[in-house]
Specification:
With 537 residues, the chain is α/β, with parallel strands linked by helices. It is 41% helix and 12% strand. It is built from 20 helices and 15 strands. The strands form 4 sheets. It has an 8-stranded parallel sheet. A 3-stranded antiparallel sheet has the order 1-14-15. Strand 14 and strand 15 form a beta hairpin. Helix 6 crosses helix 17. The protein starts with a helix and ends in a 13-residue tail after the last helix. This is FMN-binding glutamate synthase family protein. Keywords: Membrane, Transmembrane, Transmembrane helix. It holds the Pfam family Glu_synthase.
């Protein structure tokens, strides 16, 4: 009986106060205000009783709405009051703070030692030298472009990863690109095409070509060579990247509803207004590994000989080997491959995909690196890495495992003001980064945030230079697995080359035996099709 009283007491109290306020209207205007407030609550309570969608408010009229309120603000409460500095959800406060500090060009040192439990399993560190070096120039570069590339590109070893206009606001795109221009590094367009806001900044672009062929498509969604050539030959475009899959949702297509398509998005993507914009799960320009290599060769020719490569999140490892075999058979070798880890996630994705599809970056990167070594192609193909790479240690680690350069999306989002509100897909981003609402994106002031983008890049490269010098090296590209140590269990650790093996050059071509299953998959891979000889993967 008492429980029932608690459940319905807010409604009963609201009704009584409404009647009381109405009876006192002749005394003061305050009674009118009270009547409106309690009358509204009474109406809500009665509606709660008769509605059929929410069991909680049906059983707890008025009171049940508190649950939805606290559920709505739960992420903010956790982030600001409860979450620990080192809890990764998905980026820790400590990691976000170092990005903010470097973007604002303020002191990023911390007193009183590490807060990380160095004795716990999984802890990682880099070995240092008793004879460290001082590195003056931290503008580290890597030349991308194989033997068939006529316009190789000297890229920074740290660049902005793929984020499309439409997913990001116009102001965010401009700030990122102007920052890239000021800092001398590259900005990946994402699969949404080259917008006017990419061009306004004047920064180097990596033109990503996804399965929707946005900006280079026919009306039926197929690839249009003439439109591609017109965009790819622009001097601002330095490289072309074919997107096979992305870490957030590998193997999953996407749709931008017609209601969200603005004239500017339609212009960038070369799509009609009033129609849902579909990104298919797979490409229509090729369906076999051999056709894929021919497509890459076509793009290289149409672009005037610029570096052409592809991005993928590793799935079936044999399928990647099919692509490598197609390289050997056709003689068409991409200039670069970007390995995206499943940790990627600027784009909203189904929970099952975000949590349980695709290889994490470290495992995917190691496999791609070793497969290319085994096929004798590693010296012809540069490898980029993408997936939660925000600090100098993250960069040193992937360079040691086999990458030539790294990309970051969320790191640069933090630099332009992202607070990890995780409302990217709602069009209600509180800092104007991932919204098309002109009022909300007004909060993002382009000149200020562009400076922060350049600061973040410069200070991260400076920190990487200091780590490189402390290890006794002269360039981050000299990091190797043995520079990395990993805590295996309490009081025990492993050297990186015991975990991240560098397989012998050409071992797949020689069919040398190996302990890790590479050769077994290599024998089942074929250049003619992605499907295996049998049912395995």
């Amino acid at each position: 009986m008492f429980t029932r009283f608690i459940r319905f007491s807010p409604l009963a109290l609201s009704a009584l106060l409404t009647l009381g306020a109405l009876s006192g209207l002749i005394l003061t205007d305050w009674f009118l205000i009270a009547a409106i407030i309690f009358g509204f609550l009474t109406f809500v309570g009665i509606y709660d009783l008769i509605q059929t969608k929410h069991a909680i408010t049906r059983n707890y009229p008025i009171l049940g709405h508190l649950r939805f309120f606290f559920e709505e603000i739960r992420p903010e409460i956790r982030q600001y009051l409860i979450e620990g500095d080192d809890e990764e959800v998905p980026f820790s406060r400590a990691t976000r703070t170092i990005v903010y500090q470097r973007a604002k060009d303020i002191e990023d040192a911390k007193p009183f030692g590490t807060r990380i439990r160095v004795s716990e399993s999984g802890y990682q560190w880099i070995t240092h030298s008793v004879k460290p070096r001082h590195i003056e120039d931290s503008d580290f570069r890597v030349e991308i472009g194989g033997p068939d590339c006529k316009q190789p590109y000297k890229a920074s070893i740290y660049n902005i990863s793929a984020m499309s206009f439409g997913a990001l606001s116009a102001n965010a795109i401009m700030a990122l690109n102007k920052g890239a221009k000021a800092g001398g590094f590259a900005h990946d367009t994402g699969e949404g095409g080259i917008s006017r806001y990419h061009r306004e900044g004047g920064g180097d672009l990596i033109y990503e070509v996804g399965s929707g062929y946005f900006g280079c498509r026919n009306h039926d969604g197929s690839f249009n060579p003439e439109k591609f050539a017109m965009r790819a030959q622009d001097d601002q475009v330095k490289m072309i990247e074919v997107k096979l899959s992305q870490g957030a949702k590998p193997g999953h297509g996407g749709m931008l509803p017609a209601a969200k398509i603005t004239p500017e998005i339609a212009e960038a993507r070369d799509i009609p207004m009033g129609v849902d914009c579909i990104s298919p799960a797979s490409h229509s320009a090729f369906s076999t590994p051999l056709e894929m290599m021919e497509f890459i060769g076509q793009l290289r020719e149409l672009s005037g000989g610029k570096p052409v490569g592809f991005k993928l999140c590793v799935g079936h490892r044999r399928e990647f080997m099919c692509i490598v075999k197609a390289m050997l058979e056709t003689g068409i070798v991409p200039d670069f491959i970007v390995v995206d880890g499943k940790e990627g996630g600027t784009g909203a994705a189904p929970l099952e995909f975000a949590n349980h599809m695709g290889f994490p970056l470290v495992e995917g990167l190691s496999f791609v690196h070793n497969t290319l070594r085994g096929a004798g192609l590693r010296d012809k193909v540069k490898i980029g890495a993408s997936g939660k790479l925000v600090t100098a240690f993250h960069l040193a680690k992937v360079l040691a495992i086999g990458a030539d350069w790294a990309n970051s999306a969320r790191g640069f989002m933090f630099a332009i003001g992202c607070i990890q509100a995780q409302s990217c897909h709602t069009n209600k981003c509180p800092t104007g980064v991932t919204t098309q609402d002109p009022v909300r994106q007004r909060a993002l002031v382009v000149p200020d945030k562009a400076t922060r983008v350049a600061n973040f890049h410069r200070n991260t490269m400076k920190a990487l230079a200091e780590m490189t010098g402390a290890a006794g090296l002269t360039h981050p590209g000299q990091f190797l697995p043995h520079h990395l140590l990993v805590r295996d269990r309490e009081r025990d650790f492993k050297v990186g080359d015991e975990i991240y093996h560098y397989m012998p050059e050409g071992f797949l071509l020689r069919e040398d035996d190996d302990r890790f299953g590479y050769l077994k998959r290599w024998k089942r891979a074929r250049a003619e099709a992605f499907e295996p000889f049998d049912s395995g993967v």
